[in-house]
Amino acid sequence: MQVYQYKNNGYNIILDVPSGSVHVADDVLYDAVGLMNQGTEAKKAEQELAGRYSEEEVREAMEEIAQLKKEGALFSEEPYAPAIDRFTQMPVVVKALCLHIAHDCNLACRYCFAEEGEYHGRRALMSLEVGRKALDFLAGHSGFRRNLEVDFFGGEPLMNWNVVKELVAYGHEIEEKTKDTPAPKKFRFTLTTNGVLLNDEIMDFCNREMHNVVLSIDGRKEVHDKMRPFRKGQGSYDFIIPKFLKFAEMRRKLGLQYYVRGTYTHWNLDFSKDVLHLADLGFDQISVEPVVAPPEADYAIRPEDLPFLEEQYDLLAREMIRRKKAGKAFHFFHFMIDLSGGPCVYKRLSGCGSGTEYLAVTPWGDFYPCHQFVGMEEFLLGNVDEGVRREDLVSEFKKVNVYSKEECSRCFSRFYCSGGCAANSYNFTGKINDVYEIGCRLQKKRVECAIMLKAAEAEMDI
Amino acid sequence: MKHVKSLNTKNLQNTLKKGGCGECQTSCQSACKTSCTVGNQSCEHK
Predict the structure, then answer these.
(1) How many structural domains compose chain A?
(2) Residue A295 Cα, gap to closest chain B Cα (Å)
């Protein structure tokens, strides 16, 4: 699909997929593009439209379509496949690690893919030695990449806080050591936490050192407490909310990034209320995502849930416009889209980088393609002592890109989701190079809403 | 133009020439962890 059209919230939107051009059209031009997109020749399209619109309107619309085509902004060519082939054959450098600082957790979230933090394995905390070796590996295998990302993840990373602090200090040592070399390094640290152990000292440290913090909260109290209880069953909402609010306020004042990040499930299909609840509490950087769960789980999203969920995204988008007009704007991660300065086409087509430039590291130093593969022994890539041993697997992950998936190569959303998540694909199809249909449907809806919001903002001139 | 308004002027084809530096954020290191979203990310070299 090279040109994709849809109507949303009163806007006629035309997306020229290969060029990434986005147009908001009136009815006559929208209909004309629709006919041409079905293969109708311009002259014939004019005749077909003559009954519905004035001769002058049709002529003007056709002239404008011709102009957009001339500018490469409509019915454009897609010349990327050979370049992506070459790009994916280039040597791999690692630039991001997800450090599993603790395979242990003080909550017992019902949907946790880490199974209460243990990832189908044993409880363990990462030692400082393993963490240092992981950072050395990253610095040593990142070539000339300057920006290196390290996410302190779990389980719950605050259960091993001293090691987190020591590793940040070690990262700075590496920065210092490499600053006058041809390949200087700069670490960007992030922390994902459930907030239970959060305190003033940790917040202050994070405000000095963490590029981003991701604070796990699902939304309304009853929704959050149902899925995110302590191990003895008591809900965690009341315990974490005051801390998260304080932390978010501090970071907002300092101009630092944070996200409150929730998961919605079959039990709260009306998740737009959870997003708005978080906004009403005062959070302004919000991410709430569909759960990824085996189909047999009672909380899994089902195919029949999709129409309702799609409507929820529409409701949320319209409410965000209303709030923006009222001076109460907030960011919703999956509606954010950068139409003018977004990533290059290589990034957009070559996937998330799991198994190639992004690796997860277990507490005992094993490498996996990403956090979602941890514990699946068939995806064990190597370890911090021996490096990556399974080059065959890395080669498989290198091949994952939009053009290697037939459905993706035809999808209008291919430049926004980059072909989706390899782990989701594996979990639902048994192959890393396939598509997870429920995730795709929701992703496409989010892209549609995100573009509609841009159209609304352009109209509001904000 | 009278019948259409374009929301962006950047053509992805132009990024073929200078893109691919790899300095941008890894998709999953932001606020997702269970999906893949790149359209909302920024280029480090714009």
Answers:
(1) 2
(2) 16
Q: Which two tokens stand for residue B37?
A: 């979203």
Q: Is A97 near chain B, with CB under 8 Å?
A: no
Exposure string for A408-434, b = 16+ CB within 10 A, e = fewer: bbebbbbbbbbbbbbbbbbbbeeebbb
pLDDT at residue B29, rounded to an integer: 65
pLDDT of res. A343 = 86
Question: In chain B, whose CA is at the least distance from the CA of A67?
Answer: B1
For residue range A136-178, list pLDDT tens digits in order. Answer: 999 999 999 999 999 999 999 999 999 999 999 999 999 999 9
User: Which residue, of A335, A352, A382, is where some domain finishes?
Assistant: A335
The pLDDT tens digits of the residues spanning A297-320 come to 999 999 999 999 999 999 999 999
B13 contacts in A (CB within 8 Å)? Answer: 18-19, 72, 76-77, 79, 345
Instruction: Say which residue the tokens 């009815």 belong to.
Output: A27
- What's the complex ipTM? 0.91
Structural domain that includes position A263:
92-335
**A190 in the same domain as A124:** yes
Q: Do B7 and A354 touch (CB under 8 A)?
A: no
In a domain, A346, yes or no: no
Count the Cβ atoms, other than its own, within 10 Å of residue A2.
16
Q: Smallest CA–CA separation between B24 and chain A, in Å?
A: 8
Mean pLDDT on A221-245: 97
Contacts of B34 in chain A (CB under 8 A): 113, 263, 289-292, 372, 421, 424
Kindly list the distances between the CA atom of residue A349 and the CA atoms of A340, A353, B18, in Å, as whole numbers in the listed order: 17, 11, 15
- Among chain A residues, the shortest Cα distance to B11 is held by A19
What are the structure tokens assigned to A61, written together?
Answer: 């619309």
Domain boundary among A335, A354, A381: A335
